[in-house]
Design a protein that fits this description.
mainly alpha, Alpha-lytic protease prodomain-like, Alpha-Beta Plaits, 2 domains, 3-stranded mixed sheet
Length: about 300
């Protein structure tokens, strides 16, 4: 039995809208940061602009994952296209990890170079704008992710949060340099700390997606709920060979139920259909569930 295929049209539109809004903000921030960073003598702001550019790239990846993942089944993809959304999560996580490595390398170079320049007031203003706008984007994208169940959107929301954190570091370092230039060392040290945070976010985003790609079973609690829903039917005498795996943010499951061997084929089919409906009601993210009917073995 197959439930609703992919996100509803409304949820799909909400996901695309959230990502397009994020892409538009990233384009604006990228241009402003790099332009003002170069003019305002702030290497940190230029680097933060490159970080925003990486956000823009992941926005494109997420839109691809959402659109392709929502496509219906076809001959070449009989289980649908939701793995493309999972793949986009992995790409986003790897991009986050790459940003963390580059930021930490730049910070180490800054420590070794022991050089700093007085930033302009405009650079401080752009850094503050970046912190506010990226935090707003994180909260907005996170709400849409919770509503649609899209893990790719959740990954992108965390990318917005990572950019807000890095912009906060830039803002703090620029403010300190403006007030007291000898404190320049705090800037690269703080960048290294934020790089560690971003690397942790990258792991949290990509590790579950990698588990889904290699068909890792859902959490034991989910399997228990499937089992309980199946055995709640009065005609089901037992179950075995219960298996489940993720397809994007949804679940594919199959199991064998044991019934009275005296039942007709039609009666067994009816029971199987009722069990499938019961499991779909228990878990709202069931993409497909298959129930095989077997005769119960007499007790020896």
């Amino acid at each position: 039995m197959e439930s609703s295929t992919g996100e509803t049209g409304q949820a799909l539109q909400a996901g695309i809208k959230a990502t397009v809004v994020g892409a538009a903000v990233n384009i604006l921030l990228t241009v402003l940061k790099i332009w003002v960073g170069l003019a305002g003598r702030s290497r940190a702001l230029v680097a933060d602009g490159v970080h925003s550019l990486s956000d823009l790239a992941t926005d494109v990846v997420v839109v691809f994952g959402i659109i392709v993942g929502a496509k219906p089944r076809d001959v070449t993809h009989p289980y649908g296209h939701k793995r493309f959304e999972t793949l986009s999560e992995v790409v986003v996580g790897l991009c986050l990890l790459g940003v963390a490595v580059l930021m930490s390398m730049d910070a180490v170079k800054a420590l070794a170079g022991r050089s700093s320049e007085q930033p302009s007031a405009v650079a401080l203003a752009i850094a503050a704008l970046s912190v506010v706008s990226k935090e707003v984007l994180y909260r907005y994208t996170r709400r849409v992710s919770d509503r649609t169940g899209s893990r790719a959107l959740l990954a992108n929301a965390w990318h917005h949060r990572s950019d807000a954190l890095s912009s906060l570091v830039v803002l703090a370092s620029l403010a300190l340099l403006k007030v007291y230039p000898p404190l320049w060392v705090l800037d690269p040290l703080a960048c290294i700390g934020i790089s560690v945070v971003i690397a942790k976010v990258a792991f949290d985003v990509s590790y579950p997606a990698l588990r889904h790609i290699v068909d890792t079973a859902p959490e034991p609690g989910i399997l228990e709920r499937i089992s309980a829903a199946a055995t709640s039917h009065p005609c089901v005498l037992g179950i075995h060979k219960l298996r489940a795996r993720y397809l994007g943010s949804q679940i594919i499951a199959d199991l064998h139920i044991q019934v009275n061997p005296g039942l007709t084929v039609e009666q067994g089919h009816t029971i199987a259909s009722e069990v499938e409906k019961s499991i779909s009601r228990e878990l709202d993210n069931i993409y497909d569930v298959t129930v095989h009917v077997e005769p119960a073995q007499p007790e020896s």
